[in-house]
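Ops channel
N.P.: pipeline sanity check, posting one input/output pair.
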């Protein structure tokens, strides 16, 4: 009788440990299957403001997922969204929200754009370091870019004609500034540049120039202002205090008036490597990279919406 109990105990132990080994084997196989699933290519295209950030994120991501090749290209928010609508890419980078007419076009092609906010940008107005003007109101900036104020002396500067630098019409930044700052049409005299970096170099070389760029383009790798530029502080109106986009706390508190979300759009609820990429970008590691590149992390309200869009 006692030997039967011992035998039964041995069988039970074998079953328990065998079960553990089987379970570990299943888990191991599951991880293997996941790794196999997380292989392939990821095509990301769009916003010039986001392109450098996305390339840095891709470098870090591919170290974690060596079986995944991530290709990141710019071209502008409109170009990225059009590529998503046409089924040419996996993710569209955009520095503006998708337009109603673009959503309609997407639905006609059975594409369902789903937004994820990956960070925040303080759109920055820059002038040459020799320009004595340090701050402007939103109304003054709008009047300058509409071509209604054409000389720096009218806003406290030198008697010098203002030279306008801006973006091409396919740029999300072009559309955002037009809607949020101008409330009208750009001056016909504005020189339309292909990207943020071109505007920075143009203003550094032009004492009469003014331009607008994403905040990630006005800081070096240590978070310091790029030499050769003055970053304008901006007032909501003539009676408001002026805040600078280099002041992180002012931006996070909503005091700097020209802040916008940066988006990545997927086709439907992301799956596979697309989902894995989005989760990486929104992770603590991904958000640290976002901030190290000069942008700002995702605030709580957008984080909640991101979670909903992942379900």
């Amino acid at each position: 009788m006692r030997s039967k109990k011992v035998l039964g105990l041995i069988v039970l132990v074998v079953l328990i440990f065998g079960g553990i080994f089987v379970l570990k084997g299943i888990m191991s196989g599951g991880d293997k299957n996941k790794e196999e699933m997380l292989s392939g290519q990821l095509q990301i295209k769009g916003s010039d403001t986001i392109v450098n950030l996305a390339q840095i994120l891709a470098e870090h991501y591919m170290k974690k997922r060596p079986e995944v090749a991530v290709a990141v290209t710019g071209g502008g928010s409109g170009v990225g969204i059009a590529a998503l609508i046409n089924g040419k890419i996996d993710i569209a980078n955009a520095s503006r929200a998708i337009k109603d007419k673009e959503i309609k076009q997407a639905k006609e092609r059975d594409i369902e754009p789903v937004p994820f906010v990956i960070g925040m940008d303080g759109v920055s107005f820059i002038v040459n370091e020799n320009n004595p003007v340090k701050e402007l109101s939103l109304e003054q900036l709008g009047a300058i870019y509409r071509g209604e104020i054409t000389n720096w002396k009218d806003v406290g500067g030198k008697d010098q004609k203002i030279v306008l630098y801006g973006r091409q019409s396919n740029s999300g930044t072009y559309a955002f500034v037009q809607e949020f700052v101008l409330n009208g049409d750009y001056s016909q005299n504005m020189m339309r540049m292909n990207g943020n970096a071109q505007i920075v170099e143009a203003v550094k070389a032009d004492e009469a120039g003014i331009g607008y760029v994403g905040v990630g383009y006005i800081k070096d790798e240590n978070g310091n202002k790029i030499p050769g530029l003055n970053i304008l502080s901006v007032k909501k109106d003539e009676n408001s205090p002026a805040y600078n986009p280099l002041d992180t706390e002012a931006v996070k508190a909503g005091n700097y008036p020209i802040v916008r979300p940066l988006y990545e759009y997927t086709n439907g609820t992301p799956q596979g490597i697309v989902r894995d990429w989005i989760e990486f970008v929104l992770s603590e590691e991904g958000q640290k990279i976002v901030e190290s590149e000069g942008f700002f992390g995702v605030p709580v309200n957008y984080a909640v919406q991101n979670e909903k869009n992942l379900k």
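N.P.: looks fine end to end. The domain at 40-121+261-310 is CATH 3.40.190.10 (D-Maltodextrin-Binding Protein; domain 2).
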